């Protein structure tokens, strides 16, 4: 980069991209007063590598999603002062990676594994700042479920809330009634650890608090 192109970049408008198709991630970001200029989901292969741990998978996929988004024409068009955020959430039981439940059988398998036990939710946020500087934070949250009765499971399956969710449940819905204990980041379990996301953005020079001051006031 030449001195003149660097100077040009410094004056380009600041843009934020959320590389995600997850409506939860957008809602979480908006909860802390940040609205992306572009939603640009990245399509990555989420199959774990052989012997990959749940934590390593979450970190790798968040990085891949962010890097893939950088290559997209719509993102490039935003200019040199663009920040790209991506995230990935993996539910693990020991070294075992639970699937993103797509079928009733997936969800039933997950719920029977989670019943009466503690598991870990690994949520990684990856930020690519202008100049392609990449940084990540992986947040580990321990979640303990009550022992699930037949009725709990059947009614939860009927709710359909498990569909497309890592580990076959969504803590932001009815499954919160199954959670005896949570140690870590609630927003991380839903899909985007907010403390870490805001810290990464601030650390990379994104004007987080300027956005707070210019955004319309909201009732909470
Ligand atoms: C454990 C848990 C997961 N989830 C969701 C978050 C993620 O959307 C999903 C895990 O899949 P991810 O692959 O992390 O995300 P995604 O494919 O839905 O979206 P994208 O890659 O485009 O950003 O599970 C909940 O919504 N609540 C929960 O309690």
Folded structure, characterized:
The protein is an alpha/beta fold. It has a single domain (3-214), classed as Maf protein (Alpha-Beta Complex), CATH 3.90.950. Helices cover 37% and strands 23% of the residues. It contains nine helices and seven strands, in the order αβαβααββαββαβααα. It has helices spanning 3-11, 23-31, 54-70, 73-76, 104-114, 150-159, 186-190, 194-203, 208-214; strands at residues 15-18, 38-39, 82-93, 96-97, 118-129, 133-145, 179-183. Strands 1, 2, 3, 4, 5, 6 and 7 form a seven-stranded mixed beta sheet that branches. Strand 1, helix 2 and strand 2 (38-39) form a beta-alpha-beta unit. The longest helix has 17 residues, at 54-70. Residues 1-7 have low confidence and may be disordered. The structure holds thymidine-5'-triphosphate. Residues 20-22, 24-25, 41, 46, 65, 87-89, 91, 100, 121, 164-167, 169-172, 189-191 line the site of thymidine-5'-triphosphate (TTP).
Descriptive key words:
220 residues, alpha/beta, seven-stranded mixed β-sheet, 7 strands, 37% helix, dTTP/UTP pyrophosphatase, Maf-like, dTTP diphosphatase activity
Ligand kinds: thymidine-5'-triphosphate
User: Can you tell me the number of structural domains?
Assistant: 1
> In this structure, how is the largest beta sheet organized?
7 strands, mixed
Mean pLDDT, to the nearest integer, reads 93
Assembly annotation:
single chain
- The total strand number stands at 7
User: Strand pairing plus helix content: what structural class?
Assistant: alpha/beta
> What's the N-to-C terminus distance?
44 Å
In percent, how much strand structure appears in the residues?
15-25%
Q: Which CATH architecture would you pick?
A: Alpha-Beta Complex
Family: Belongs to the Maf family. YhdE subfamily.
Protein name: dTTP/UTP pyrophosphatase
InterPro entries: ITPase-like_fam (IPR029001), Maf-like (IPR003697)
Site (Important for substrate specificity): 24, 89, 172
